[in-house]
Prior knowledge:
Layout: E1 3-8, H1 10-19, E2 21-24, H2 43-57, E3 64-69, E4 78-85, E5 90-91, H3 101-104, E6 110-116, E7 124-125, H4 126-131, H5 144-152, E8 157-160, H6 162-175, E9 186-189, E10 194-197, H7 214-222, H8 228-238, H9 242-248, E11 257-263, E12 270-278, E13 283-290, H10 297-319, E14 326-335, H11 340-348, E15 359-361, E16 365-372, E17 375-380
Parallel strand pairs: 1-3, 13-14, 14-15, 14-16
Antiparallel strand pairs: 1-8, 2-6, 3-4, 4-6, 4-7, 5-6, 9-10, 11-12, 12-13, 16-17
Amino acid sequence: MNIHVFVVNQITFKQHLEYMFAGTGAKNRMSLFLEKSDIKFQPTTERNLVGMIADISRIRPDDKIIFYLQATVNNPGMFFGVFKAKSSAFFDENDNKKYLSDELGKGLSYRIEIEADTVYSYGITEHEYLDDLTGKEAPYELCWSLIYRKLKGNRGCTMITPYEFDDLLCKIKKKNQDNQLKGAGFTFDEGEVRIITAKGTKQYNGRRKSLDIKPRLLYKAGKKNAFETHLQAYVMQKYDDGILKKLLLPLGNGSAWVGNEVACGVGMQKIDTLIIEQNDEEIHVKVVELKDEEPYEYILSHQLRWYLQWVSQYIVPNLLKYKKPVVIHPCILARKTDNIDIIEKIRSVDLINSSIQNVSIAATEYIAFDIVNNDITFEKVV
Length: 382
């Protein structure tokens, strides 16, 4: 199960609640490449938009949804919840047919439908969630997912880990004395800064176009353009399906937590894909570095080495509370190569030695993709 935080303002929050959907996007920019994959498009703008597609594409039905209401002159930023995803992600273009465009006052092209989970009226402030050290014994227990997001400040849909969500939910419950709102319809009371039950529900009637990024990825690859962001979006759309499920999910039991561009330091380094999956016996953490080119030595000597160190210090201690062995899997997902030397380095490299009791580091994996006959394939090489 994943947990996702959507950034809203007082105007968009009201619409999200009344029509029961959540969305992200970039002003009024259009995503023409989704409907005409061979169109020319400004590369920087496209990477920005595809990054948002990757963010919302990781959402699956029944995932938990939290709203972060941005601060105003009179009120601090606050977290409200809890909702859950009712649909997979879909697309409603920024054109004159866009549903609720005037009401929202901003472009939110990439959307999901939501429904009530355990909805509470009052939210908790940033200070209550991110700054308060009550009950915290070590830095790793802070909500680094959102602290890093605040430093970067440009992500409308981000994820938090299950243990970060547990802390958030506990504080929201306490704030509301565990009194949940009843009913299926909601709205936002700006004066009291709270969610309230609405008398009726409004039907969401917007377009539900596909966010499938594969045609655009293949087009970019065929033109020998960079497509690493597109590859990440594709992985988010397909990580629990077919060959990628087999290759990426350590257990494949359908309950994996999956994050993309997981911030792992104040220098704004990001783990392309981080997967946490567990069963009754053990917990597996997979750290994946994505490349749209063949693998090279720097990935091993610097990137993966740093990511594993950060995961060991900031993720693993929280997982050890579940009293299970933890196995960390370093992984490179990159273009297929015939370079025997780099394959041998991947096979033999010893990235870090875990000195933490009950934690082990698995051998480094290399998942190779190839693009042939206008299709993309994946296989495990190491």
